[in-house]
Description:
Elements lengths: L6 E12 L2 E12 L3 E6 L5 H8 L7 E6 L2 E2 L5 H6 L2 E4 L11 H7 L7 H15 L1 H5 L10 H13 L5 E5 L7 H16 L3 E5 L3 H7 L2 E6 L2 E7 H6 L1 H7 L1 H11 L1
Parallel strand pairs: 3-8, 3-9, 6-7, 7-8
Antiparallel strand pairs: 1-2, 1-4, 4-5, 9-10
Adenosine-5'-triphosphate (ATP) binds next to helix 1.
Amino acid sequence: MTAQGEELISVSGLSSGYGAVPVVRSVDLTVRTGEIFAVVGGNGAGKTTLLSTISGLLRPTSGSVRFAGTDITGWSPERIVAHGLVHVPEGRRLFTGLTVAEHLRLGLWNAPNRRKVERERTERVVDLFPVLGERMDAYAEVLSGGEQQMLAIGQALMREPRMMLLDEPSIGLAPVIIQRVFAVVDRLRAQNLTVILVEQRVGQALALADRGLVMRHGRVEATGTAAGLAEDPALRAAYLGKAAAGGRRNEE
Ligand SMILES: Nc1ncnc2c1ncn2[C@@H]1O[C@H](COP(=O)(O)OP(=O)(O)OP(=O)(O)O)[C@@H](O)[C@H]1O
């Protein structure tokens, strides 16, 4: 177990891609326990590929990932999950024909103590997302987009992870629902869960995060505190839209 503020994950020189096509190029990052770390950047910058490489879905072509004091480079996704690092992919990836309760149970599918902990962990997920408690017998496909996102996060939380990789949770959601999902991520941080958050909504992600990085063409373009990144004039102009860049100019 790592204490709050201690380094939980350290990614060094990580590169990966698809076949012979390199996408992630020599990325370095470290995240401390209890932090929300935002990864932002334009379409196709390599954010999803970076998360998939950290979670073992893609093998790195070089570099290393050290998590909770152990080198997990090249481990299978199942082994990485068992070590406390879960990945909530973009698009939620729920199963048609399975209910909310079945999805939550599935989150524990290969957990050694699943029968013992299922009830208590389900209660914790429902405490975070009360709407799931009201819809336990509903099939995933009839849930709203927001409920599906909550279920995807809830399923990952059934493992009581130390770290969550959260890919584009806001996609396709109404602003009020995005706020609700982000509020839960904030609450999870207060419970010492560490999060790497990939987001297209750069302003909102940086407002929530402690630190972060900007990716461009698979490389780290900038890294630092979320507040520092949000105030950087070049980054504001590139990723926060004309209005934000204009606002900055007006302030100066
Ligand atoms: N399965 C795949 N096979 C081949 N190329 C892929 C695959 N997935 C992504 N790519 C390519 O890798 C590059 C990076 O994609 P990635 O999805 O990691 O970027 P991203 O920053 O997450 O973008 P977005 O925000 O649009 O999801 C893109 O050029 C994309 O076309």
